[in-house]
Q: What sequence folds into this?
């Protein structure tokens, strides 16, 4: 996770102390599962967990779920009104409790260099009992920053050409 993403987690959770699901919950492990899931078999799901991020044991319980998903192609249609569209990858959607980054990956790990494989990385507040509190723009930017960090790490792990078109740093300007 990038330094920006670590700071963004503080904005989201209100704490600087975190834990993850398990030692095997890594981008590298998720990339291996993703690569073996492509192409998506008719009986498969084409989705999985990267990890879950929890606040420290003595803090308020605040689980974040980080996931990957394979999709059929570039995004189509308009996003839900609670999302802000950002200029990263094929599409980045940020809300006050979640963000998704979609990027196209060409890689020898995913069927060669002639086919785009479309990957969505999501970061979601797993158990939202009430409306998130705080500055809506700051929360959207924080979720987008965390999603960007995991997306870039996944693109690098999959060895996507040009890192799947993702910038080195998150771009938080609306599209």
A:
């Amino acid at each position: 996770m990038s330094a920006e993403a670590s700071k963004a987690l503080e904005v989201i959770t209100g704490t600087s102390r975190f834990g993850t699901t398990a030692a095997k919950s890594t981008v590298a492990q998720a990339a291996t599962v993703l690569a073996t899931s492509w192409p998506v078999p008719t009986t498969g799901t084409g989705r999985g967990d990267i990890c879950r991020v929890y606040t420290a044991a003595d803090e308020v319980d605040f689980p974040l779920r980080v996931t990957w998903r394979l999709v059929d192609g570039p995004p189509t249609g308009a996003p839900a009104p609670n999302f802000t569209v950002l200029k990263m990858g094929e599409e980045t959607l940020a809300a006050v409790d979640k963000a998704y980054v979609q990027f196209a990956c060409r890689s020898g790990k995913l069927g060669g260099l002639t086919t785009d494989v479309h990957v969505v990385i999501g970061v979601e507040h797993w158990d939202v009992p009430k409306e998130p509190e705080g500055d809506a723009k700051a929360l959207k930017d924080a979720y987008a920053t965390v999603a960007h960090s995991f997306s870039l790490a996944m693109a690098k792990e999959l060895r996507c050409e040009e890192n799947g078109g993702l910038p080195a740093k998150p771009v938080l300007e609306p599209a």
Summary: The mean pLDDT is 85.
